[in-house]
């Protein structure tokens, strides 16, 4: 869930910044597909495990689910961020394009649709994989979530996520994204009424699992609409607080894909 640039800059103390060839689009899409699939498998799978391990305590279930998500998300960002930017989230992809659209090295508009397709298909696969690992079968979730309070929670969760990511990117601190984003999502599990989906692809994927982390198909459209509103608010705040993006400066071994 990190912002991206088209070029990768690698520097060390003995050399001036130099650009390298951007990662091929196919490799980026594979990273987005795998990352989103594993993310949803972590969310859904840990939710199933939590319900089985702590069947009488929803609070403990949420703690177990959120803890697994925090660590899983941080690891995925570290693992795949150098390849694709580790968006794993359509609203992050859209915000990345919007905030870098005047930058010749920014995220290309022609990559938005392929990224969204990779993320959404990956999310669905991740839910199916979690169902299969725990042998629970695949049916649509019956967990209705689309109350006004839950939708407000999604607006807040998504706005905070987008603001965090692009505050880091625009102030040249993207290297902190893995722990920062993981920590934010872990906190938002608890301080938002919706438990912080904050991701349209994840919402779509989770409707394929009638388990602890599932969401009913009838709730998904409203959740996605709330996430889009939240993303717009977060992007506007990032642009207001950081009107000028920092010049990319990545230390050796770190990349902005």
Q: Could you please describe the fold and organization of this structure?
A:
- The protein is about 60% helix and about 5% strand.
- It has helices at about 25-55, 60-85, 90-100, 110-135, 150-170, 175-190, 200-205, 215-240, and strands spanning about 10, 15-20.
- About 50% of the residues are buried.
- The protein has a single domain (about 10-240), classed as Glycerol uptake facilitator protein (Up-down Bundle), CATH 1.20.1080.
- Strands 1-2 form a two-stranded antiparallel sheet.
- The longest helix has 29 residues, at about 25-55.
- Helix 1 runs parallel beside helix 4 (about 110-135) and helix 4 (about 110-135) packs parallel to helix 7 (about 200-205).
- Strand 1 and strand 2 (about 15-20) form a beta hairpin.
- By secondary structure, it is mostly helical.
Per-chain topology:
Elements (H helix, E strand, L loop, with lengths): L7 E5 L2 E6 L4 H29 L4 H27 L5 H11 L11 H22 L14 H23 L6 H15 L8 H7 L10 H25 L16
Antiparallel strand pairs: 1-2
Report the sheet with the most strands, covering strand number, pairing sense and barrel closure.
Answer: 2 strands, antiparallel
What is Rg?
18 Å
CATH topology: Glycerol uptake facilitator protein
Number of helices, where a helix is a run of at least 4 consecutive DSSP H or I residues:
8
- Mean pLDDT over all positions: 90
CATH architecture: Up-down Bundle
With strands numbered from the N-terminus, the spatial order across the biggest sheet is: 1-2
Distance between the termini: 12 Å
